[in-house]
Amino acid sequence: MKYFGTIIFLTSMTIFSFSIESCTKNTNEAAAVTASAKDTWTIIQDNILTPSCATSGCHASTSDANYVQHNLLLTSATAYDNLINISSKNAAAKTAGLVRVKPGDYISSLLYKKIDCQTTSQYGALMPLGGANLSLGQIEFIKQWIIKGAPKKGSVVDETVLANNTACTQAFLPMQAPAAAEGFQLAINTFTVSPNTEREVFVNRNTPNTSTVYVNKFIMQGRPNSHHFVLYGFQNNTSLSPVNTIRDLYNTDASINIITFA
To answer: Could you give phi then psi for residue 40, rounded to 5 degrees?
Structure first.
């Protein structure tokens, strides 16, 4: 997976803002099959929300670090009632008239927008935060459940939808650089992150300003699950690291790269 990062510095002069053959089936038999199928909501809870969302630090407890921000528990005892027709604390979602789950309308359901990597940009980070993106099958399963009225009981979505294990991916589109009079842009080199790993890198960039610049705003953009972006300078400029070169904090054996660390 390629990761990119872009940061724009803005000076004080800028203001931003799818032939069906008919067949006959015994009605009682059909009813028996439906009755024996697992409830769609239970599948969503057990196979998606519990392992991916109701985890420590996220949506498992009122003591989770981010609970004050989202006020959303997704445990089996609370998730359904906390989702159906409930307003979110997300300001952009409120302005757009979204609720967490609006039965019959996935477009107006924030839950769908927060798990579909193609539609999350204006409503905060993609979920699960810091974890693997949901598969296309899981996202479609939730979407179809919402379309069918988001019932708590009953099998309303074909489980074979979940067979699509392809992870949702999003093409990264770098931000357009600001006009020269508005500020300047710095971008991190493209680098690769191996599956199921993290990579922490550093890049030394020279800013283009020739005189002092007073920064009143900056805009940062990165691929989903990129995090902990740090901007820093050097007090001692006599032995700086090479310019425009990616440096890793950790070696391939997971030990600290002493030269980078220093």
So the answer is: -60, -45
- Residue 76 structure tokens: 């089996």
Query: CA-CA distance, 188 to 168, in Å (whole number)?
Result: 24
Determine the pLDDT at residue 68. 74
Helices (H), the chain: 27-36, 40-44, 50-52, 67-70, 79-83, 91-95, 110-115, 136-147, 258-261
| Domain edge (last residue) among 136, 163, 190 | 163
Beta bridge partners of 184: 9
**CA–CA dist 227, 234 (Å, integer):** 22
Q: What tokens were used for 220?
A: 């940062």
Q: In which residue are the tokens 């690291």 written?
A: 241
Which residue pairs, CB below 8 angstroms and at least 24 apart, start in 62-71?
66/129
Q: Three-state DSSP class for 158?
A: coil
Full residue range of the structural domain in which residue 109 is found:
36-163
Closest of 91, 24, 79, 86 to residue 55, by C-alpha: 79
Least Cα distance to 191 among 233, 134, 240, 249 occurs for 249
194 token code pair: 């191996």
pLDDT digits (tens, 9 = 90+) for 24-54: 444 443 443 344 489 999 999 999 999 988 7
Q: How many helices (H) and strands (E) does the chain have?
A: 9, 5
Are residues 139 and 44 both part of a single domain?
yes
* Contact yes or no for 133/224 (Cβ under 8 A): yes
Q: Is residue 28 part of a domain?
A: no
Describe the strand order of the beta sheet including 183-192 as a list of residue ranges. Answer: 183-192, 2-11, 215-222
